[in-house]
Amino acid sequence: MTEKNHLDLKGKELIILGERDGVPAHTIEQAVEGLGAKVAYSSTQCFV
Question: Where in the chain are the domains?
Fold first, then answer.
């Protein structure tokens, strides 16, 4: 039996919320677009 260790996001639309002091939305966008996802909305916020 083989195990799948990848995330299949092809054809999915995502909403991305990044954090200013953590991982910004732009960085997350680059990662998920490489997995085949489409970004519907993304924003980097400051949560205090």
Answer: 9-36
